[in-house]
Amino acid sequence: MTIEAGTLVEDEALTLPDDKAYLHWTPVVAGAFAAAAFSFILVMFGVTIGLGVSSTSPTWRDASAALSLLSGLYLILQAIVSFGIGGYIAGHLRRRYDVAGTPEAETRDGFHGLAAWALAVLLGAALTAVIGAATVHGSSSALTAKDTTSAEPLLSYELDRLFRAPRPTTNVAMGAERAEAGRILMTSSSHNGVNGDDRTHLIQQVATTTGLSAGDAERRVDQAIAASRTAIAHSRRSTIILAFSIAAATLLGAVSAWAAAASGDRMGTWQ
Fold first, then answer.
1. Residues in Cβ contact with 4 at an 8 Å cutoff, skipping those fewer than 6 apart
2. Which residue has the higher pLDDT, 147 or 129?
3. Would you state the pLDDT for residue 185?
4. Which letter, b or e, does each residue of 232-250 get, where b requires 16 or more Cβ atoms within 10 Å of its Cβ?
5. ω into 17 cis (within 30 of 0)
6. pLDDT score of 77
7. Domain boundaries, the chain
8. How far is Cα 242 from Cα 236, in angstroms, rounded to an integer?
C-alpha cells in the first residue's frame, strides 16, 4: 500500500490492516479528557473574573439580568471552544483507512468527535454528581447539627435581619425558631404568598425573640417577606439561565466537536 499526494492506493500484494474498527477509542478518550480539562480551566477562569452564572452570596441578588445573560453566553462559548479542541484531537489522531475529504471520512471523523463530546459530558456529569453528593451530605450534617432550615443560605441575610435585636440580649432566636421562620418566608414566592396566620405567628415570634414592639415587629416581618420574595425570584431567574445555558452549551458543543473532528481529518496524517 502506497500513499501518493494524499491518495490511498492499494497494491495487489498488500491489504489493509485487519483492525478496521469504525471507532478508535484511544483518540476518543484523549479528546474527551482534553475537552474536560479545557472546560474546567475556562469555567474557573470565568468564575474568577466574575462570570459565574449562580452564587450563594447575598450580593448576587443585585446582579442585573444582563450580567446573568453574559455569564450564560460565556458558558456557551467555553463549551464550543473546549469541545472543539477535544473533537479536533479525536479527529486528528484516529487511524485512517479512507481518503481524506470524502463523505465517508468526514462521517467517521464526525463520529469520533461526537464520541469524545459524549464521553467528556459524562465525565463532567459524574464529577458534578460526586461534588453534589458530597455537598448535600455536608449540608445535611450541618442542618442536623444546627437544626437550621433549607432556606439557608438563600435567605440567611433576611433571617439575620428578622431576628436582629436592637440591644444585646440573651433571648436570641434558636435554631428551631429560625428554621420555622425560614420555611414561612419560603412561601412568600408562592401564588398566594404568606398567609395571614403564618404572618401573625411570625410577628409574635419576632416580638418575643427580639423584644421589639408589635408595630416594629410587624414592619420588620413585612420587610422580610418582601425581601425574601425578591431573593427567591432572583435565585429562580439565575437557575433558569443556568439550566438553559448548560443545555445550549452541551448541544452546541456537540456541533463544535463534530466540525472540529472533520477539520482534524483534513489536517491529519495518514497511518
1. none
2. 129
3. 87
4. bebbeebeebbeebbeebb
5. no
6. 93
7. 2-145+237-266, 147-231
8. 10
Sequence-distant contacts of 50-53: CB under 8 A, at least 24 apart: 53/238, 53/241, 53/242, 53/245
**Other beta carbons within 10 Å of 115:** 22
Tens digits of residue pLDDT in 179-229: 888 888 888 888 888 888 889 988 888 888 888 888 988 999 999 999 888
Cell numbers 459524562 label which residue?
Answer: 122
Cell triple for 76: 456557551
State the Cα–Cα distance between residues 82 and 76, nearest whole angstrom: 10
Q: Name residue 19's amino acid.
A: D
Burial degree of 134 (CB within 10 A; 0-12, 13-18, 19+): exposed
Listing DSSP states for 179-218 in one string gives: HHHHHHHHGGGSSS-S-HHHHHHHHHHHHHHH---HHHHH
* 25-48 and 65-93 helices, crossing angle to 10°: 160
DSSP state, residue 4? E
Could you please report the per-residue DSSP string of 15-45?
Answer: ---S---S--HHHHHHHHHHHHHHHHHHHHH
Measured between alpha carbons, how far is 74 from 248 in angstroms, rounded to an integer?
11
At 243-256, the pLDDT tens digits run: 898 899 999 999 99
* Predicted confidence (pLDDT) per residue in 100-131, tens digit: 567 777 888 889 999 999 999 999 888 888 87
Please, are residues 41 and 85 in contact by the beta-carbon 8 Å criterion?
Answer: no
The neighbouring-strand residues paired with 7 are 4
